[in-house]
């Protein structure tokens, strides 16, 4: 078995192998792109070959920025297109590709990699842990009245206009970029994603209406991407620079004529919408799932890159069985900044690198993983200290699909 990096000349075989692994055929892109792979970066791909030269596995990565707690930005590899032909599964192909890819990611100087997991059982063994979560909310319009307290708040000055997706790609790009820089857990959408219309709506070429919010000076500061089919209005995403803008766009969707129910595809676990309704049960939650998985490659660099909201110290004994590494670090936080250095002190916590990925963005509380038996606390106060230290000022959320 040969594992090698790809070039532009490998695009056709890469796509054919990846699609065949899922029993699909490669579609013909529309002019300028328009399919999920239109933004693929072939200089970051991995291809697995048999001894006779047949391609049997693929893995790719996008170049993203991940927004960290405290507002910092970190370059990350967004792992994608991981596939092995059914004829060659359970023969070590995936393991070999993952090891090759992690080595390349480290060589690029990326302290972390991220992915969306099609199956939750696959990636923990490679050091990834679920770090952000999302859910779907369905609202029947006849139950969507806001509570009086919310109804009595004066709306923020501004306006909403309805556009077609094809009319406003550059505007959506600008608004999303402002949003993601302030939202922990969000990843960038590079300009070539928008220009090639890659991925899913509203980035893709799929027909959508856009409710574009402008502030009092006419500057775009939020949008909702939606489509009505039969009596259901489905909202792909609401992107807003503050809660009042999000409320205005949400209310716009809920007031849409000819729809009997509205489905919001992506809401974070701490979304305030249910509390805005007069009927708390009006927003029915479903489809709760993990979304962004995080894998730390350079633990000191990753921990020092994010912001912190409590002072303290922890000694972390981190096991990375996939890469055959085990290290102990002293994490010291003062005034929002961390120093992370090797130490031989007794540990406060012992944990797998995948569990460190889960708690890294603040979307998973360390004590939850302690109670679940994933993390070992070496003394009674370790859990509370870890919870206080990894606490964030804002829940991480990612809604970009890749």
UniProtKB/TrEMBL annotation:
Which InterPro entries does this UniProt record tie to the protein?
A: Acetyltransf_17, Acetyltransferase_Eis, Acyl_CoA_acyltransferase, Eis_dom, GNAT_dom, NAcTrfase_Eis, SCP2_sterol-bd_dom_sf
Q: Which residues form a coiled coil?
A: none
Keywords (alphabetical) are: Acyltransferase, Transferase
| Molecular function, one GO term | aminoglycoside N-acetyltransferase activity
Superkingdom of origin: Bacteria
**Keyword match Ribonucleoprotein:** no
Q: Which GO terms describe its biological process?
A: aminoglycoside antibiotic catabolic process
Where is acetyl-CoA annotated to bind? Answer: 82-84, 90-95, 118-119
Q: How does it assemble?
A: Homohexamer; trimer of dimers.
Family, similarity comment? Belongs to the acetyltransferase Eis family.
Q: What is this protein called?
A: GNAT family N-acetyltransferase
State the organism's lineage: Bacteria, Bacillati, Actinomycetota, Actinomycetes, Catenulisporales
């Amino acid at each position: 078995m040969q594992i090698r990096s790809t070039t532009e000349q490998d695009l056709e075989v890469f796509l054919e192998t990846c699609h065949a692994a899922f029993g699909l055929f490669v579609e013909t892109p529309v002019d300028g792109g328009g399919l999920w792979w239109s933004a693929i970066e072939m200089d970051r791909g991995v291809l697995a070959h048999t001894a006779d030269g047949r391609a049997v596995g693929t893995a790719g990565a996008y170049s993203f920025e991940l927004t960290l707690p405290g507002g910092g930005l970190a370059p990350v590899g967004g792992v994608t297109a991981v596939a092995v032909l059914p004829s060659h599964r359970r023969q070590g192909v995936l393991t070999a590709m993952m090891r090759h890819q992690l080595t390349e990611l480290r060589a690029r100087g990326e302290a972390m990699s991220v992915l969306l997991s099609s199956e939750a059982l696959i990636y923990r063994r490679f050091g990834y842990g679920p770090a952000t979560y999302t859910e779907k909310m369905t609202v029947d319009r006849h139950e969507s009245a806001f509570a009086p307290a919310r109804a009595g708040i004066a709306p923020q000055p501004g306006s909403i206009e309805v556009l077609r997706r094809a009319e406003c790609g550059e505007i959506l790009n600008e608004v999303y970029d402002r949003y993601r820089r302030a939202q922990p857990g969000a990843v960038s959408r590079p300009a070539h994603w928008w220009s090639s219309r890659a991925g899913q709506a509203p980035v893709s070429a799929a027909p959508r209406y856009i409710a574009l919010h402008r502030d009092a000076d006419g500057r775009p500061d939020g949008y909702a991407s939606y489509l009505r089919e039969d009596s259901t209005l489905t909202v792909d995403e609401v992107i807003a620079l503050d809660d009042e803008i999000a409320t205005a766009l949400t209310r716009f969707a809920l007031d849409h004529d000819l729809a009997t129910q509205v489905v919001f595809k992506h809401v974070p676990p701490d979304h305030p919408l249910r509390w805005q309704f007069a009927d708390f049960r009006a927003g029915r939650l479903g489809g709760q799932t993990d979304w962004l998985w995080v894998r730390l490659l350079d633990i000191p660099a990753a921990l020092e890159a994010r912001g912190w909201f409590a002072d303290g110290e922890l000694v972390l004994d981190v096991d990375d069985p996939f890469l055959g590494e085990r290290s102990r670090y002293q994490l010291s936080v003062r005034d929002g900044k961390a120093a992370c250095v090797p130490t031989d002190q007794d540990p406060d916590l012992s944990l797998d690198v995948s569990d460190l990925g889960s708690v890294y963005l603040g979307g998973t509380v360390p004590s939850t993983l302690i109670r679940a038996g994933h993390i070992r606390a070496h003394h009674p106060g370790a859990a509370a200290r870890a919870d206080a230290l990894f606490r964030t000022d804002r829940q991480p959320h990612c809604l970009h699909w890749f």
